[in-house]
Amino acid sequence: MAEKLAPEKRHCFIHNGQTVFEWDQTLEEVNIYINLPPNVHPKQFYCKIQSKHLELGIKGNPPYLNHELSCPVKTDSSFWTLEDDTMHVTLQKRDKGQTWSSPIVGQGQLDPYSSDIEQKRLMLQRFQEENPGFDFSQAQFTGSCPDPRTFMGGIRTG
């Protein structure tokens, strides 16, 4: 049932008419997807993930992305992979349940409506995680949605 509350679509950050990256999020992760240029050997790509900074690109060239992250991440459980023609960066949120409006500070921020939809979806993911026998995929909020991190005492751990 949790897969019903997975992100329906990726958000796109477009600059000068070009897609820079796509991204989505869950309660625990932010995923960034970057289309790789053709004819570059996979061993030429690199990605450095720090708690508040992301740098990635092709070795020997200026970085493709070199930005502060919107929120801190757990570096020991964040990673990157190359899948087909895509670099997939998985950032483990330090604060589970926090709604990110963008992975990168000041770049591709979600509009308030989209941010509200994300917060509602993450809140439903939290309900699903805490109540695995129930299906929250059709649940709706009326009015403003509470913060998934702090609602009713916050997210339970372990």
Plain-language structure description:
Residues 16-104 form the CS domain. Pfam families: CS. InterPro entries: CS_dom, HSP20-like_chaperone, NudC_fam. The chain is mainly beta and 158 residues long. Helix content is 12%, strand content 35%. The strands form two sheets. The protein has a five-stranded antiparallel β-sheet with strand order 1-2-3-8-7, with no helix packed on it. It has a three-stranded antiparallel β-sheet with strand order 4-5-6, with no helix packed on it. The longest helix has 19 residues, at 112-130. The model has no long low-confidence stretch (mean pLDDT 86).
What would the keywords be for this entry?
single chain, 158 residues, mainly beta, 5-stranded antiparallel β-sheet, 3-stranded antiparallel β-sheet, 1 helix, 8 strands, 12% helix, 35% strand, elongated
Number of helices: 1
> Which stretches of 5+ consecutive residues score pLDDT under 50?
none
Distance between the termini: 21 Å
Determine the fraction of residues in helical runs and give it as a percent range. 10-25%
User: What's the count of strands?
Assistant: 8
Overall 3D geometry?
elongated
Spatial ordering of strands, largest sheet? 1-2-3-8-7
The SS-based structural class is: mainly beta
Element-level helix/strand string: EEEEEEEEH
> Largest sheet, described in full?
5 strands, antiparallel
Q: Which percent range describes the beta-strand content?
A: 25-35%
Specify Rg, calculated over alpha carbons.
17 Å
Name the average pLDDT: 86
In short:
With 158 residues, the chain is mainly beta. The chain is built from 1 helix and 8 strands.
